[in-house]
Amino acid sequence: MRVLLITGFILPVKHEDPLLEIQKKFLSLAEEAMKVKKLRFYQRFLLLCWRFPPGLAIMDFLTSRKTGKARSCMKIIYTLQHPQSEHHLNGRVGSWTDWDLTELGAAQAQRIAFHLKEELKDKPVRLLSSDLRRAWHTAQIVGQALNVTPEKEIRLRERNLGEAVGHSVAWLKENLLQPEITIDDRLFPSAQTRREQYVQLKPLLEELLAKEEEILLLVSHGDTLGILHALWLGLEAEALNSIQLAGSAGGVSELWLRGGKRIVRRLSDLSYLC
After folding, report:
1. What is the pLDDT of residues 88-113, one digit of tens each?
2. Which residues bind substrate (predicted)?
3. Active site annotation includes 221
4. List of domains in the chain
């Protein structure tokens, strides 16, 4: 146990205290400082609190003082691109072809799950996943580690490549209608364009932001998450003609909504595989 003495205020801090607990202690000190009308220290404690995210934000804390209710400062969305799948090795098209994880991919999912469990510290999480096996298998592994039941969300599927589903990548390249240069180029008669997937994902993101859950975890696919991350940044569909946010298998991204600002804390972080 360490005790920080800050100009007459006592802050007990344990080494193993999660950041949220440390932040709560600074908020408690801020309350104490306000009671004795030491405004300068009140402001200082709030600033110190701000340096220990995630937890309660300053504006939410101030709001809670007026309403009498403590509410969360922000929403955190983790996105996880499924790790190694069979189609990464066999030269076949992913898309809606329902490949599973490889043995290595399942082991990678276990490592990701371990790190997420350590990071989230039993915080309540809602877990949504594409229903395709490679993503769903990943979600099941992560959900077991977090003691959370995953939910299927079909809009998190990979983009549908129509007639190419079930074929090899070589077949796709030989038979596509046109190269995919713009977001409106359709590779096959029944394939989705990138604009169509953008339109499909936009209401999903709006729904996620409206949910009460403070922490969401989405398990999906590379193309899908690239567009979802662009939506998070507020990019219009046309921006995807010249911008691509590419991830890697097993990459974890962390998105924060705090004080009305959308923040990208990390993008396709592969350290979770270690």
Report:
1. 999 999 999 999 999 999 999 999 99
2. 134
3. no
4. 2-67 (no CATH), 74-273 (3.40.50.1240)
